[in-house]
Every structure is written in structure tokens, then in C-alpha cells.
């Protein structure tokens, strides 16, 4: 985690927003409990977490819509705990988008400019520029915003946020209501826009996929705290614990205890298999070994991989470009995911051997 | 078979609708006819039609004063009740505060209170305070009953209003007044307008409250009643018809304004 953070920091050394031990209490409930976080200037930071993990509250504190109950938030070194949203160089794109329904596309985009008393001609010129930047036709300027499609509304909301010209753009799951295909397109556009504008993006979502596609760094939140923060690769490959691992996709878990023979361990409860240990064993006697389905392979011999176990094919799920097999090994169910090009025509109840290399597994303390 | 049943059903629906309309409008039409009769007394069927009583009504100084009183009261009531109700509706539909539920219920209560009793109570209260009843006190009396109604009408609009829009506007740098002018008012405007229509018509047609609280000043409904009790002339149905027609015209105009704004917005 620390190595990846310093790698990003080398590119953009200045934190634009700093949170130090920030708490937010609602009555007796800690929505955010003790978050310290540096948001770097120009980065795309995604905060992921299950609903109720406090990510929206965190975002609202950054926007100035909630004040922290405890701790400090600084912007470029200046304390902004009680600076209202109106006076912050941040702009929040709401989940509902919050477009003004009685205004046209153009009037929506021009709103922050109208606030600043910029003359109409200049406003219009800027709005047209933004329409172009967000790949909306110029004719949309006079269009009723409620007559736009979901994706178009998304772009209008982005254009409005850009018209405000904030240093930090905050996103509260704006893509969650869109269909899969459009979401994929907009994810990429958003990432392009981030690069093009050089602004800092803080994005919250509960979708792992969105986070992986777009972010420079991902922060995983649970119960008001940040569990892990790092690049998508780090978090995917080296999750801090079972929660993070499971949040980032399906996993095979083996709960194990250390064997006397160094370098090996055995599965304790379910099938008492003897498995080879990954090198980053935490030192405790009890732990969970986690292997992602895509690191599992079908084996032809018992020595093809560090670990090979046998079982029977129970079910087959097609995931489009990949296929997942559910293999029963004793009373344990293991998922194997392979590219479609390597698909095997496994008959139900067929005896198979599956395996993985110790280096592809990771260990979480039990 | 089926389509025949459908045709029959449609026939009965039409008959029923026609019957309801007839039931509602027959008395109105009859009184309109009474105002068009040449004779001084109301005899049915009307033997000879004439516009004489309409002319006399329009020309009557007394009627002019009445209409002026009624209009003044109705316009004042409309203005005051819309202002009070708008903020009241915002208060209970938008914000969560302790006692909100109670406020909502207390607000509704006057609507169900018999107006005649309310009028009498207000009169006694004014007596106790030493205030001489006039059209001004009638305004106060009308407000007691109309403000809750208008609050409910506007609240319906406020409930469908997304408060996040204001939050977004603040985030984009806008101040309170700017937001009120640019976001809140335009979005709640249809509700305010229907509230105003309600307020005007309820005040214009109100009799029981005016009877007790307008004192020596007379309003259109009050005059109609007093003339029916004693001193009937066909000016009564004539003025009644005019009053109904102008209220209808007022409603149509109000509806047209809303339709116009909607169309402009949807363009």
C-alpha cells in the first residue's frame, strides 16, 4: 500500500484536499469515524464501499454540505471545515443529477455563470464550448432538459459542473441508474475528461467495475473507515483483508492453519487438503488463503501447479468472454474461471483436477 | 357479444354523466332564466324574456359597491393567504422539525369547523376586542378559513419538489435570493397559482363568514341572501348568474395561463 501511494505521489506531489482524523456523527451514529486521507491534485480517486459505509457522507463533507463533527479538512493547506458549499472550489454531481427541470440544456449549463453575473453572450459561448466538449450537438442548447435521454442528462450535468470551473469535481454514483452499455461508454468518457481537464476527481460508487476502470487510486470504505487505499492493481492483487478481497470480485477461500513443516500448510476444517503457502504468510497460525477464480486452472497432472486438487464439475456458468466452472472438491465448492477460448467441454459430474500457483494466492489473517 | 356489452356500458356511462351534469346545472340554469324574466316575480315557466334586470343590475350603484367590496376582500385575501400559505407549505412539506405533524393537523382543523359557528365566534372575539366589523374584518375572517386550504394546495406542489435542486444551486455558488428567484419560485409557481385561484374563488363566494364579520359592509353573497329573505327582485338571480359566470371566466383564464406556461416550458 505504501509503495503504491508514493508512486502516485511522485507524479503529483501536492495534496489538494487533506483530511485529518475526520468524524461525522448523526445523533449516536458515526457515519464517518476517523478518516485521514490525502487527495492529490489532479488525481482520480474513487471511494468504494457497500451502502451505508459512509462514502456519501464523506463526499458531502468535501463538498461543504455537511461539516465534520471532529477532525480537520484542509484545501491547499487552508482549513475549510466550516466553509459553505457555495464558497468552495468543489462541485458535486449528484446521483439524481439535480438538473433544473424548468430550464433548457443551455440555461442549466449557464447557471453557475449567471450566478457570477457574466453577460449573456459570453455565457452562451462558454455553454456551446462545453456542449462540444461533452459531445452534445449545439442544437441541444435550446432543448428542454427533461426531454434528454439518461446519458445526455449525464453530460449536461457534467457540463454544468465544468461551467462552475471547480478545482475538485465530486461524483455521487452518477452512473448508477444507467444501463450497462451506456455506463461503459460514460466511464471511459469520464476518464478521458479527467485527463483532458487535469482537475481532481473524487468519485464514489459501490461498483467495483466502475472503480477499476476509471481510478488512479481506490479507497475502500467500510463502517465509516477506510480499510485500504491504493492503485486498482494493488487492491485487486493484494487486498488487505477478506472484506476487500470479496468486495473486489469472487474468491475461493481456504481457512487454514500452519503445518509444522515450513512452507506448507493444511486446510483445517473442510477437506484437510495440504496446500502450498504463498510467501507473504502473516505469521499467525490461523489464516484465510484466497485465490481468485481466474487464477484457477484445470490441471492435467498433479505436478502442473504448486497446488492441485481433484473434484467433480458441478456447474458451468457463461460470463460472456469467460466461463466459470463450479467444481466440488469433497464438501468444498471451488470456482474456476477461464477464457472462453480455453473452454473445456466438461460434462456434469466429470472428474477433474484443478490447480493454482502459490504466488497467485494471497493470505488474509483470520 | 363483448363489444355489445361495451357499447351498452358506454351508453350507461354517458347517461350517468349527463344526469349528473343536469342535476348540478338545472338550478343554475333556472336562476339564470329567472334573471332574464321581464316580470318582477319568479314565475315558471318564464312568460317573457328581457335583459332589463341585467341592465338594472349593472347600472345599480348598490351592486357596484357590493362588487367592489367583494373584489377588494377577495384580492386582499388572495394576496395575504398565498404569502402565508407559501411559507407555511414550505415549512411543513420541506423541513423536518419537531411538531411538524401537529402543525399539519392543527392547520387542517379550521377547514372542518362549521363556518357559521366560526363566523359567530370571530364576531364575538372582535366585539371583545372592541373592533367594529367591516369589510376589513371580513378579510381576517376569510383568511382564517382560506389560508389552510391554500396551504394544502401549495403543499402538494412542494411535496413533488426536489430539495436537492437547491442544494445543487448552492454548490454552484448561488445565494438564497438568487435560488429563490431562479429555482424555487418558478418550480412552485403552478401550485402558487392554483392556490391563488382557490383563495380568490373561496373568498368571492363566501357567505357565512361575511354574514357575521363584514358588519355594515355588504358583499355579493351577503346581499343575495338578504334580498332573498326580504325584497326579492330579479336582480338577485341576475347578479348570481353574473357572479357565477365571472368566476367561471376567472377559472378558465387561470387554467389558460397555466396551460400556456406549461407549453412554453415543454418546448
TrEMBL record, chain B:
Query: Where is it predominantly found?
Result: membrane
Q: How does it sit in the membrane?
A: Multi-pass membrane protein
Q: Name one GO cellular component term.
A: plasma membrane
What species does this protein belong to? Answer: Pseudomonas turukhanskensis
Q: Which Pfam families match?
A: BPD_transp_1
Q: Which SUPFAM superfamilies match?
A: MetI-like
Query: Which InterPro entries does the UniProt record give?
Result: Bact_Polyamine_Transport (IPR051789), MetI-like (IPR000515), MetI-like_sf (IPR035906)
Can you tell me where the transmembrane regions are?
A: 12-36, 71-94, 106-126, 138-162, 183-204, 238-261
What Gene3D superfamilies does the record tag this protein with? MetI-like
The root-end lineage is:
Bacteria, Pseudomonadati, Pseudomonadota, Gammaproteobacteria, Pseudomonadales
ABC transmembrane type-1 domain residues: 67-263
List localization entries: Cell membrane
Going by the UniProt record, its keywords in alphabetical order are: Cell membrane, Membrane, Transmembrane, Transmembrane helix, Transport
**Which Gene Ontology BP terms does the record give?**
transmembrane transport
Does the entry feature the keyword Transmembrane, yes or no?
A: yes
Name by which UniProt lists this protein: Spermidine/putrescine ABC transporter permease
Which family is it part of?
Belongs to the binding-protein-dependent transport system permease family. CysTW subfamily.
Q: Does the keyword Protein biosynthesis apply?
A: no
Amino acid at each position: 500500500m505504501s509503495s503504491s501511494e508514493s508512486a502516485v505521489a511522485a507524479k503529483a506531489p501536492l495534496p489538494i484536499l487533506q483530511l485529518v482524523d475526520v468524524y461525522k456523527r448523526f445523533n449516536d451514529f458515526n457515519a464517518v469515524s476517523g478518516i485521514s486521507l490525502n487527495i492529490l491534485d489532479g488525481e482520480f480517486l474513487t471511494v468504494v464501499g457497500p451502502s451505508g459505509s459512509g462514502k456519501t457522507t464523506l463526499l458531502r463533507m468535501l463538498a461543504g454540505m455537511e461539516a465534520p463533527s471532529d477532525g480537520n479538512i484542509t484545501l491547499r493547506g487552508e482549513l475549510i471545515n466550516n466553509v459553505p458549499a457555495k464558497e468552495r472550489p468543489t462541485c458535486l454531481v449528484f446521483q439524481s443529477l439535480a438538473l433544473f427541470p424548468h430550464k433548457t440544456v443551455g440555461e442549466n449549463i449557464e447557471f453557475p455563470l449567471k450566478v457570477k453575473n457574466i453577460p449573456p453572450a459570453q455565457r452562451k459561448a462558454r455553454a456551446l464550448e462545453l456542449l462540444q466538449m461533452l459531445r452534445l450537438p449545439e442544437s441541444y442548447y435550446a432543448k428542454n432538459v427533461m426531454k434528454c435521454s439518461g446519458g445526455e442528462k449525464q453530460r449536461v450535468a457534467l457540463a454544468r459542473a465544468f461551467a462552475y470551473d471547480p478545482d475538485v469535481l465530486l461524483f455521487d454514483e452518477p452512473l448508477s441508474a444507467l444501463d450497462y452499455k451506456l455506463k461503459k461508454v460514460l466511464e471511459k468518457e469520464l476518464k478521458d475528461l479527467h485527463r483532458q481537464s487535469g482537475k481532481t476527481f473524487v468519485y464514489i460508487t459501490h461498483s467495483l467495475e466502475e472503480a477499476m476502470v476509471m481510478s488512479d487510486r481506490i479507497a475502500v470504505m467500510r463502517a465509516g473507515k477506510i480499510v485500504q487505499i491504493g492503485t486498482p492493481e494493488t487492491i485487486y492483487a493484494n487486498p488487505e483483508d477478506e472484506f476487500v478481497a470479496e468486495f473486489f470480485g469472487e474468491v475461493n477461500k481456504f481457512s487454514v492453519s500452519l503445518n509444522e513443516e515450513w512452507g506448507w500448510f493444511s486446510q483445517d476444517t473442510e477437506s484437510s487438503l495440504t496446500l502450498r503457502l504463498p510467501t507473504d504468510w502473516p505469521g499467525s497460525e490461523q489464516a484465510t488463503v484466497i485465490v481468485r477464480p481466474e487464477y484457477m486452472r484445470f490441471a492435467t497432472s498433479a505436478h502442473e501447479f504448486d497446488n492441485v486438487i481433484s473434484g467433480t464439475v458441478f456447474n458451468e456458468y457463461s460470463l460472456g468472454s469467460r466461463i466459470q466452472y463450479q467444481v466440488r472438491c469433497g464438501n468444498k465448492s471451488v470456482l474456476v474461471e477461464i477464457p472462453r477460448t480455453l473452454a473445456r467441454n466438461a460434462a456434469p459430474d466429470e472428474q477433474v483436477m484443478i490447480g493454482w500457483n502459490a504466488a497467485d494466492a494471497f493470505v488474509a489473517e483470520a | 357479444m363483448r363489444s355489445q356489452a361495451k357499447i351498452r356500458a358506454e351508453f350507461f356511462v354517458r347517461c350517468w354523466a349527463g344526469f349528473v351534469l343536469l342535476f348540478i346545472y338545472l338550478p343554475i340554469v333556472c336562476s339564470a332564466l329567472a334573471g332574464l324574466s321581464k316580470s318582477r316575480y319568479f314565475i315558471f315557466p318564464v312568460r317573457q324574456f328581457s335583459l332589463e334586470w341585467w341592465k338594472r343590475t349593472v347600472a345599480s350603484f348598490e351592486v357596484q359597491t357590493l362588487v367592489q367590496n367583494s373584489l377588494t376582500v377577495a384580492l386582499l385575501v388572495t394576496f395575504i393567504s398565498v404569502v402565508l400559505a407559501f411559507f407555511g407549505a414550505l415549512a411543513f412539506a420541506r423541513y423536518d422539525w419537531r411538531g411538524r405533524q401537529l402543525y399539519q393537523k392543527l392547520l387542517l382543523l379550521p377547514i372542518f369547523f362549521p363556518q357559521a359557528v366560526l363566523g359567530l365566534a370571530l364576531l364575538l372575539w372582535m366585539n371583545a376586542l372592541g373592533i367594529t366589523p367591516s369589510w376589513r374584518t371580513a378579510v381576517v375572517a376569510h383568511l382564517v378559513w382560506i389560508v389552510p386550504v391554500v396551504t394544502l394546495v401549495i403543499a402538494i406542489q412542494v411535496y413533488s419538489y426536489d430539495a436537492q435542486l437547491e442544494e445543487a444551486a448552492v454548490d454552484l455558488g448561488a445565494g438564497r435570493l438568487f435560488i429563490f428567484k431562479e429555482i424555487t419560485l418558478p418550480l412552485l409557481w403552478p401550485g402558487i397559482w392554483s392556490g391563488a385561484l382557490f383563495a380568490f374563488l373561496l373568498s368571492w363566494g363566501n357567505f357565512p363568514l361575511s354574514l357575521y364579520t363584514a358588519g355594515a359592509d355588504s358583499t355579493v353573497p351577503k346581499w343575495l341572501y338578504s334580498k332573498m329573505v326580504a325584497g326579492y327582485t330579479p336582480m338577485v338571480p341576475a347578479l348570481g348568474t353574473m357572479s357565477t359566470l365571472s368566476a367561471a371566466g376567472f377559472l378558465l383564464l387561470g387554467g389558460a395561463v397555466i396551460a400556456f406556461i406549461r407549453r412554453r416550458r415543454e418546448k
